[in-house]
């Protein structure tokens, strides 16, 4: 019998795989559009593909467990010493490491009502108690989150932009919040979608980590870099925090093909710019359609957008029948909403085309 904290967990629900829908609906896989997991519709950069292929010849050997080359590349790109960097099997892994290193029974973690699902999962898995704080306009209510911190709180999670709502908080607001958080609470600032921010909204959270030893910034190669299937993320923080995370990290948590691809992807700025530009256009395409259909949506700073459709389970079924996979977010306490990832122009068009009949409940 598992302990209570494990039995209380409902497993993370990923987007429906294309192969599964193809089987269920007797559709060809190529006729299915999947806009459910905030992936990069361009795929990966050609430089990353070449590096991944080249790295395949070495897979009989264990990867470099310290990720020396990728950390060196991140170090020069971000201007921080390698001792301030931890690598993860996706940024989920880094979130988990933070929870495992700092949480335990009798300790608490603070996160927002619509905050990314893994915060609650990682907190419970560590045997700690989650303090879920009500949202403001679907986004993080930082004042309320600060007020929820208790003497036994050790971790506070913020996603900026947040998933699944896409909400964004200005950098100076986040920084002044971090400055107010007690030193014995680690602020985990999850920036999985930061590469999609418009230039005017960018802020230098990496520089803050030198000023606030209780700040850990997490980022990923899964989204704008297009490497979701290879599972690479990283965290930047004070060397003492990084040291703690390394104590609970698996020895070879990032594979060698993944390390090589991530390093190459980091150098391909042209691909990153193209991905962000495609996302901007796709976001306009989607939100213009929502406006035409009279639908409410939450303005998003990420590569996805949440829209209110009423009976989301029924609309989702209508979309699935038309070969379109999006993400119902009832599990986040938003039963009237669907989250759709920004795809290629033709994928967005397929979704928009399927949406009207799905909304009307036509079979
Ligand atoms: N944080 C947020 C806010 C996310 O949306 C995601 C992906 N769904 C992650 C972290 C984790 O992504 P990965 O493990 O692929 O880096």
From TrEMBL:
GO BP annotations listed: L-histidine biosynthetic process
Annotated keywords: Amino-acid biosynthesis, Aminotransferase, Histidine biosynthesis, Pyridoxal phosphate, Transferase
Pathway assignment: Amino-acid biosynthesis; L-histidine biosynthesis; L-histidine from 5-phospho-alpha-D-ribose 1-diphosphate: step 7/9
Domain Aminotransferase class I/classII large: 31-355
Known cofactor(s): pyridoxal 5'-phosphate
UniProt modified residues of type N6-(pyridoxal phosphate)lysine: 223
Record GO terms (molecular function): histidinol-phosphate transaminase activity; pyridoxal phosphate binding
EC numbers for this chain: 2.6.1.9
One Pfam family linked to the record: Aminotran_1_2
Catalytic activities: L-histidinol phosphate + 2-oxoglutarate = 3-(imidazol-4-yl)-2-oxopropyl phosphate + L-glutamate
Subunit composition and interactions: Homodimer.
NCBIfam families: hisC (TIGR01141)
Family: Belongs to the class-II pyridoxal-phosphate-dependent aminotransferase family. Histidinol-phosphate aminotransferase subfamily.
Name of the molecule in the record: Histidinol-phosphate aminotransferase
Gene encoding the protein: hisC
